[in-house]
Write a structure and sequence with these properties.
homodimer, 181 residues, Arc Repressor Mutant, subunit A, three-stranded antiparallel beta sheet, 7 helices, 4 strands, 9% strand, DNA-binding
Amino acid sequence: MELSKTSYVILGMLKLGRRTGYEIKALVDVSTRFFWAASYGQIYPELARLEKQGLVKGEVDRTNGRRPKAYELTAAGERALRDWLTSDDPLHIELRHEGALKFFFSDALTPEEQLDQLRRTRRTHEDLAAQLRAIEPESEAGKPPAPLMTLEFGIAYQEFLAGWCAEAERRLTPGQVKKGS
Amino acid sequence: MELSKTSYVILGMLKLGRRTGYEIKALVDVSTRFFWAASYGQIYPELARLEKQGLVKGEVDRTNGRRPKAYELTAAGERALRDWLTSDDPLHIELRHEGALKFFFSDALTPEEQLDQLRRTRRTHEDLAAQLRAIEPESEAGKPPAPLMTLEFGIAYQEFLAGWCAEAERRLTPGQVKKGS
DNA sequence: GGCGTCATGTAATACGTTACATGATTAC
DNA sequence: GTAATCATGTAACGTATTACATGACGCC
């Protein structure tokens, strides 16, 4: 593999239209961020690298004295994006979940403390679900469905996690009958 | 924050009993790996750092000429673990999901290619769920419930993701106009 | 004039993986 | 004896975050 996954985020965003690094970052923050984040420290150097490889082409817009450098895909860039999108290489899928980690070790706590932590984790996911719901999507007929479905996925994902916490809370609340007994 | 999250994995594993770095790694691989992984390159240097900070104590076992260096928690280490377990600092929760990323950009593909990718992602999660189910847990009465529940969580999590893919496949499959399938 | 936003970029640092080097013990 | 497993550790590399430095433009 030559390109990092994050460079495909950039290529993909440029496939949707000509953009500056700043705009790419803003778009990532309201779309792919919840399953693939990217920071300026990655985006700007990566844009330079992609340009050197001939996958994107940048042009400084001087029409009114400003200096935003907008990039667009080259033919080679389109090919690279397409190859990645259709490849069947093993997918990079990774979760880092401090709440689950704490829960794993939480038998060292009192039952109340253990429940407190579960509630905190649940609230975190409820907040994240609310944040995603606040992103009002521009869903028009005829528009490609994937971005909207991805947003729905994000919401369902956070709700699943919040729901799991809620069920675990129930199971660990004293006075409840244990499952399977 | 002084300690990295990964050092709490180590402290937590040592809370469960005296262990060598090798054993910690093996334990992580069948338990926390799916929401917090760790490699030798992290574990051994981190153990050394934790010992310098007085949170763990290592002793070389020379009873029969071997050299496994087993570590255990010190009182300070127990305190550090407990403080982390009960703290209400924002949780580090992060997902990197290449399948979701591809799906987000997949409107650039033909419907068949798009479905192919969804199926690949689904199969990945189905495989992961199967792997987790293969981990036979030692669930005895009186044993702490969290590790077992965490395993159940892992399975439910992978199944949720596989299920979401299946539903997306259904939604993107053109209505049964064709015959002969 | 000052604030917010647009805009680009770098440096320091942290985090993490992989591959490598080394060697003992155990089971066949 | 030889293969698997136990066991420790480092070096090189890659990936990513954070903070910082810089400055223009538009609006109030």
